[in-house]
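Session log. Operator J.P. requested a structure for one protein chain; no other inputs attached. Running the standard single-chain path with token output.
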Amino acid sequence: MPTEYPLSPEMAFFIQKTLSFSVDSLEIPAQRRSYSRMCEAFTPTRPADLEVKDFQLAGVDVRCYRPHRVSVEHPAPCVMYLHGGGWVVGDLDSHDFLTAALAVDLNAVVIAVDYRLAPEHPFPAGFEDCLEVWHALQIQAQRLDIDPQRIVIAGDSAGGNLAAAVCLALRDSGQRQPVGQTLIYPGLGGADDLPSRTECFDAPLLSTVDLGFYRQLYLSEGERSPYAMPLNATDFRGLAPAFIAVAQFDPLRDDGVCYERALREAGVATEFDPGLGLVHGSLRGKGQVAEVDALYRRLVSALLGFLRRLL
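Structure written below.
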């Protein structure tokens, strides 16, 4: 019998609507079609004061959101955004609801990355795509009219994993960190015996069984690279300051808890959001659920703090 979670009526309605698009099939094409239909149902009309262009960076499809009111006198701050979806589903459209809103609310350029997906392209393909786009943003910053020293890397769920992995790879190769890393209910390779794995084993929208399913598709057997699962790292020093938001009712909750602690103990500046009342993936309820709107405001505040750091 499913566990009862103390959710607000608005959150319960959001979950019910999300689940109405689910399918029983485990076939990946069916899962992707279902996810796309769900995402479309939650995607509002884009704000009018945005220029949106799709193109490629380092051979990877990206979508660039540039607010009309961004300064023309100085290169723009930028957020490189990596979508969630268990490394298996999701694309440039699935998170348009968020990336468009962030561009307007931050008055910053947002670059969304359409990295390769598993199981057709398991680790390290998606990670390598994200790292290559990061390098391309540095090299082509002048052409893109962005400030290479004011780029935040951000992502939710699997995208949070990839954002953390890019930071580790940059640190390990002696390259400059993003001005901040923003991870929203990330999956970071926490141990199977973390409390949230059992406390939230049947949580709405993501269960502990789901975690195993997606991880198996993404990883080779026995993969221990910290670029696959950042909590496998042995050194967390020298990484970008972090905003880490988790969801209270999420088997991945303690991944974020452990990562924030590891960063803080290594001397990295962190801000942690416990996501009270939230479930995995609930950021899509923005504009419909009060506790999600509260998270979004904290997310925007954290991003603005990072982007203004070097002003």
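Operator note: The first helix runs from residue 9 to 19.
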